[in-house]
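Invent a record, attention on tokens:
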Amino acid sequence: MSRRSGILEFAVLGLLRESPMHGYELRKRLNTSLGVFRAFSYGTLYPCLKTLVTNGWLVEEPGHTHDDAVAAPLAGRRAKIVYRLTAEGKEHFEELLSQTGPDAYEDEHFAARFAFFGQTSRDVRMRVLEGRRSRLEERLEKMRASLARTRERLDDYTLELQRHGMESVEREVRWLNELIESERAGRDLRGSESGGSAQQDTTTGSTGGLPRPGETPRTDTSDDTAT
């Protein structure tokens, strides 16, 4: 399994844990709630869904809405298939949530993991955040060393691009420091003191009132017009 397909499977299981969905709804949620999946297609999603069904983590059910029941026979089309998480799928997703290995610190995987922090225990959140910060600090050190070696050979625009990249990493490190401080202080998603796990924002998988980086890219909230 490729790293990207593994991230997609994780995200699909996480969204379906909230509620069953058909393919169009699922793709739209992946596009709007998780910016890392903006560019993927149905040709990527449906093989993933079939794999999850084969593994016993999802089941396919016919759509039960009135529109599905009436429109499908009139149009000569099959009713939309709804995908539902099984008990085994929920258990597998919870196992994935508990993992804190190096993959969880990489750019795309971290974004997906962070989107489901509301469903993640505090100690796991801390390990992922600290691992991500360590990874970025290593990256920043390498960028600074590279810039020091090559500064005299770079034109102004290339130099400015490298500086911009370093500033982006520095911003994320500051943001992570704020998140880690909040977790250590026991603040939940609304910023109040709490000893328990953070509450989930089930509409977006976001982290409510936790500190955010001031200039991080926003997710794409445009409607998906695909049919």
